[in-house]
Amino acid sequence: MSWSDRAQLYRDSAAHREGEDLDLIVEWAEGARSALDVATGGGHVAGRLREAGVEVVSCDPAPGMRPDVICRAEDLPFAEKSFDVVACRVAAHHFEDVGAAVREMSRVSGDRVLVVDNLYMDDAAEAADKVRDPSHVRNYSEGDWRELFESAGLLVDEVRRFEKPIEFEPWIERSGSSVAESAQVRALLADRIEDGWITLDRIAIRGLRSRNEEP
How far apart are CA 32 and CA 49, in angstroms? Predict the structure, then answer.
């Protein structure tokens, strides 16, 4: 199943259209006039920021996600400092070159870069993600994220960590997993599944463009 084929599932997903992490992105974007929503998926970040009065451009490599601009996170077709805020929620674990993506987000941001993603938990969880969705590259630790931000010239201003409960069957359905794949994922994540729900570890990180840059 391609990302465009999955688009409506992500637009309708309760796990994606709400959550403490989504509320936090809106909070962290306060005062911004413009924002770029990278790998917009179901468009939930863009929608919430627009509700808050921010002028938002969304981008995604999958046309079915209905982004304003079709592009990869590693190749953002925007000028330097085009947006006050650049946000990316629960997508970076799919990026082929996450370092390049963070550098691009830093480049087109005039002030803040906000990233939310699932945290690396253990090798079994990584294996489960790859079985569930072959487009999964990897999840990263908090230390990895701090290094990625700092390497992109961003000052890590705040980090939050969350537990994210997600209903297991819809989570599997969104990826188009077969019955056998679903069983394998369930076995690999058995210690994190309870009463039909899986709990993922999630991180939110806010980075600021360095204040001592040359004008």
Answer: 10
Strand partners, 70: 60
Q: Kindly report the backbone phi and psi dihedral angles of residue 66, in degrees, each rounded to the nearest multiple of 5, phi listed first.
A: 60, 45
Phi, psi dihedrals of residue 100, rounded to the nearest 5°: -65, -40
CB 91 within 8 A of CB 73: yes
What domains can you pick out in the chain, each with its CATH number? 3-121+135-166+201-209 (3.40.50.150)
pTM score: 0.92
Going residue by residue through the chain, which has 215 residues, state the pLDDT in tens, using 9 for 90 and above: 466 766 676 676 666 767 899 999 999 999 999 999 999 998 999 999 999 999 999 999 999 899 999 999 999 999 999 999 999 999 999 999 999 999 999 999 999 999 999 999 999 999 999 999 999 999 999 999 999 999 999 999 999 999 999 899 988 888 888 899 999 999 999 999 999 999 999 999 999 987 545 44
55 φ/ψ angles, rounded to the nearest 5 degrees: -80, 115
Q: Outline where DSSP puts E strands in 7-94.
A: 34-38, 55-60, 69-70, 83-89
**Structure tokens belonging to residue 56:** 């938002």
